[in-house]
Write a structure and sequence with these properties.
333 residues, alpha/beta, two-stranded antiparallel ribbon
Length: 333
């Protein structure tokens, strides 16, 4: 029987791949964004957001403040890497979202699993004419060139077949066509690059469509999918130590601390009702990656939260940025 030994949740913002002095490039994207997502479902331009909330985050977005937050996120990420190393999993199931790396509007599954022993990453951020900060981000995401990441086709197929048996319809990927820079994206490359510390641990990429409506699964559906995955893992005939990782989130591109703290509290308290009822309008754009965490929480209902760190990064005076979070779950016994 396989055994789940650890759960991890972590944000994967580009800021984690850059020095704080280069976070200005992400702030520039916020200034130009005409569809900054509010948790009530509205989409605002930066000018509209600033007019509504005022420059209330001026002090939090100074270079000095951002450097302090950058240092704090590095400590939090190191702690997650320590936990993963100590747990010594034989395989890591990474729940992330695809943002056009594998799927396009012509084919956008709600849920898919990449089942192969050799998994390929996208090289979308490795162009020679890209700005240096983009190439740096690409290296941090393993998207600077096509990398081969070790997978486990056997275990991935167990998950796929088990989900079908449990009435969870799922798409699958066996190989990647290279014509359009296709391959695993930052939700997966960041985890391998930042948390594995060079160890070659097989992964199974579980890809949710969180960004692109109309077929985004609900929070309740995500929680139930996680529960089904746990059942499959625990009934597996393999003798493997398994870790789950939720990659992404929390709120962005407008930081909503109230939303973030509500879901973090629900994780800590095992409050399935709150997690299952997060409304779709609060899960647009980057905030949709909260769904990746809800899948993992569904898989770890009998686990306890062992560590939780929340660092809201507001990189502009109007509060755009990312509500970054770092969490571990461990068995109760």
């Amino acid at each position: 029987m396989a055994k789940i030994v650890l759960g991890i949740g972590t944000s994967h913002t580009p800021m984690f791949t850059l020095e704080a002095k280069d976070w200005k490039h992400r702030a520039d994207a916020d200034y130009a964004n005409t569809a900054l997502n509010m948790s009530d479902g509205r989409m605002l331009s930066y000018a509209e957001l600033l007019a509504e909330v005022g420059p209330r985050y001026v002090e939090e977005s100074t270079p000095e403040a951002l450097k302090q937050k950058s240092d704090a996120t590095e400590v939090a990420l190191d702690s997650l890497a320590d936990a993963l190393e100590a747990a010594a999993p034989d395989i890591v199931l990474i729940v992330g979202d695809d943002q056009g790396e594998m799927y396009k509007p012509g084919n956008q599954p709600a849920l898919s699993i990449y089942h192969a022993d050799d998994l390929m990453t996208s090289d979308a951020f490795g162009k020679d004419d890209s700005q240096e900060w983009v190439r740096t981000m690409g290296r941090g995401y393993m998207m600077d060139e096509v990398h081969t990441v070790r997978g486990s086709e056997k275990f991935a197929l167990e998950l796929i077949n088990g989900l079908i048996e449990r009435h969870v319809d799922i798409s699958t990927v066996r190989s990647v066509e290279r014509e359009a820079e296709a391959g695993l994206g930052h939700a997966y490359g960041f985890i391998v690059k930042r948390l594995f510390r060079g160890r070659e641990i097989p992964i199974v990429p579980i890809m949710l469509n969180t960004y692109y409506r109309p077929n985004v699964p609900t929070a309740a559906r995500c929680f139930d999918i996680g529960a089904a995955m746990r059942d499959i893992v625990e009934k597996s005939s393999s003798d493997l130590r398994v870790a789950f990782v939720a990659s992404g989130g929390l709120s962005h591109f407008v930081v909503d601390e109230e939303l973030d703290r509500r879901v973090l509290k629900a994780f800590e308290e095992g409050d399935a009702e709150t997690l299952r009822s997060v409304p779709p309008q609060a899960l647009n754009s980057g905030s949709s990656e909260i769904l990746n965490w809800i899948v993992v929480a569904g898989a770890l209902q009998d686990f306890r939260v062992n560590s939780s760190v929340y660092i809201p990064i507001t990189r502009t005076s109007a509060g755009t940025g990312v509500g970054t979070a770092f969490m571990t779950w461990v068995p109760r016994n």
